[in-house]
Amino acid sequence: MLSHSSAALFYGVWIPTALLAFAARAHPQIHGPITIINLITHRRRAGTLQVKPNEEDDPNKVPAVARMPMEVWEQIKGYLLDEIDSEERKCIDKLRCEDCTAKGEKKAVEEGSAEEDESAGSAEAQSRYEWTHWRAPACQRCLKNMLCKVGYPAFCGEEELITNMLFDLNLMKASDAHHLSESDGNTFTAVGLRFRKEGRDGGCYPTLYANADHDGAGLVTVSSFSHDIFKIHDDSSFYHFVSTYRLLTAEKFALNLVPDDNDDIIDEDPLGLDVLSFREQLESLMRDDAGQRESQRGVKYSRKPNPRWMMWNKCGGD
Fold it and tell me: Keyword annotations for this protein (predicted)?
């Protein structure tokens, strides 16, 4: 039996892979228009927007781009971002079982929830489903479809789309692997700052690997880091990405480690993370109760990203 382990050091956040996949599917259609809208609204607020009028227009007339109320621009952006929700619904529609689909259509008829389609001149009932957002459904058949048809790791076929989206936003996947939450079955992707400009992948964060035969001696890997790697000049890309694309970050399966001799050790982390000293962390790993702690407390989600340096350890065997 071959045992293998890895340890990756990265600065970033954890985001549910499913939400990244929905955003990545919509990204090619919405990224350009949203970038333009953000540029216009930013320059409008700063008073630096300059628009060259067409030759046919009255030179004394303020162009429509400069006259349009800011609220209208935000509504347009919201309409574009609805494409992400549409991708989520499309995915769930494919996973919903036949019984739940039939119940949703029947419920729509019973409630009389019909909307007039002016172009067709007819009314169409809008289905009412119980499962409409990406989470574990109550129906066991829908849950089985979710677990069996999506694949593990979840949305593994969307890797290229996710990579391209993050590249456009000055971000990158910190690792090709995924974290599986034992408490809710979701997989998460580590997203970090793209610290190198060349290449679509932007390099990768420092990752150490070690492999060993079950009956043989273990392989030890050691690496030193320059202080420069810890210099983060601007992490606003996280806030822009999460807020614009309506994403959630996962917080609570991480640990906040503090030195053993810290006299000011805190009892509770403001993010709700477990606070352990280095010694306590080692003892916890020896007891192998990290997964049990996660299952007991669940995963904490937030719409406000809190990027920070993290060490991600994985081990397994073949």
Answer: Signal
